[in-house]
Specification:
The structure is a homotrimer. By secondary structure, the first copy, chain A, is an all-alpha fold. In chain A, 76% of the residues lie in helices and 0% in strands. In chain A, α6 runs antiparallel to α7 and α6 runs parallel beside α8. Chains A, B, C: It is found in: Cell membrane. Chains A, B, C: Pfam families: Gly_transporter (PF03458).
Chain lengths: 208, 208, 208
Amino acid sequence: MNEQLLFNVVDLAGTFAFAISGATAARRCQLDLFGILAIAYITACGGGIARDVMIGAIPPAGLSDWRYLLTAVIAALFTIAAYPWVERLTYPVRLFDAMGLGLFAVYGAHKALLFGHNAEVAVLLGMVTAIGGGMARDVLLTRVSIVLQKEIYALAALAGAAMTVIGERLGWPPVWATWLPILFCFSLRFLSLHRHWNLPRFGRDPDA
Amino acid sequence: MNEQLLFNVVDLAGTFAFAISGATAARRCQLDLFGILAIAYITACGGGIARDVMIGAIPPAGLSDWRYLLTAVIAALFTIAAYPWVERLTYPVRLFDAMGLGLFAVYGAHKALLFGHNAEVAVLLGMVTAIGGGMARDVLLTRVSIVLQKEIYALAALAGAAMTVIGERLGWPPVWATWLPILFCFSLRFLSLHRHWNLPRFGRDPDA
Amino acid sequence: MNEQLLFNVVDLAGTFAFAISGATAARRCQLDLFGILAIAYITACGGGIARDVMIGAIPPAGLSDWRYLLTAVIAALFTIAAYPWVERLTYPVRLFDAMGLGLFAVYGAHKALLFGHNAEVAVLLGMVTAIGGGMARDVLLTRVSIVLQKEIYALAALAGAAMTVIGERLGWPPVWATWLPILFCFSLRFLSLHRHWNLPRFGRDPDA
């Protein structure tokens, strides 16, 4: 499979997955039609736009490439139309979100390397690509981001981005360097969600 | 009228209008003098700064051109001095806000085209110029942005920005391509406010 | 002392100070380990990253230079390990925060001038470097930023940044142009905290 095409597919699939998760959250907060479309688009493209601004990819692809906007709008309208069904089935929504996480972390790290930045920038911005949109969604809906609170979410994105950088540096074949980190990030997120793996917290120390 | 001068006037008038709306909201939240000045400035210039960062206009005009800061500070001090009067008269505040919306949507779209970006970037960033400052204001005052919830606000900005792009692409005379979209956006916003036109919401479906 | 080295030390000391203040706030909000590390890093580097994006320093040093991330992580882990002690002693936390404020305001203004921007950009972005991370921290923890509400905080940063620009323009020796504004900003912040100096507020007018 052509490498460029591979990354385009990965990127649009992630956009669709994240837009559904954004639209679901926005609808639950009683936003109007525009609000749902906007939150879906920001959840899907916010992380990528932040990444592009920070790597100097001007204008950000999330703004200039109509396929992202179209994908987010279709995903939002689909969520609205199929809502009672989406609502009852929290499973596929979480599945989509975990897929989006892996897809975006890998694509974000890949794009940062492509623009000539170092490994640290690629790993951090891979993670930003994956969690930035969700954090923007939560800030706009005025809640402390779940990203910062529960289960292994950002850490899975960080692991996926790091594995991408390692793979590209070690010269793995593109298909492996792409899908292996995606699968790893997705699995880590999905397992942590189902087994309630959480990172340690430190509140209410008995000794405090 | 000179085209550049026309856009400068449009831009500063929008700055003044938005700074008043920001200062009013900040004062209502009991912020101190600096907080009121900061929120007024961010409401007025935040959208434009975000646009400039995304089109590669470095440094953003909202930071480098002292006229924006001065305009925002004057508007904020005016709001503080005339507050009892501003508070009682919600009408002119809404009027100013609707004017700022039209002025900024058109100026933002115009500047994005000027920097050589495509129609989608111009339309989206015209809208960001118009609603970005207000969204930043609401995020900083920790409330879900009214932009996403009620009446036709962002949609009016989107329509104004889209009309600007169409006008400039079709070669309308600058005065028409400027004032017609401003008037259209302003009217749409103002009518929707007075007639309580809202976009559909989807909460609490009876069938859910 | 070498000028470049001087600014590097100033910058990393500010990073450490702010990361502690971020980690303390995040821990109090019951965030998990990743959340604490992320908020510490964002509090420490968020203002500088915003500055770098707006002056065209791509990629932002906060992302590309591993020393910032490492400093923030060490400060966060130290805060977690020594928490009962940090919690009881609010004094050193405030001291660190006031130091970070001065250090960052001065370094931010200096870097903006170094990139060839004008005095207004340098003063505003010096302040953004100093208060931007704290504002991002408060937005992510969904509270109205203390920056906008109490005591002289942002104003002290503004004064420090302005004094840096004046000093560099008047050709003061680097050591003076660096440490004098830092000391001034720190003293202003620290005195206002201890003497409860507040800027005027305008709520609940008796005449309204």
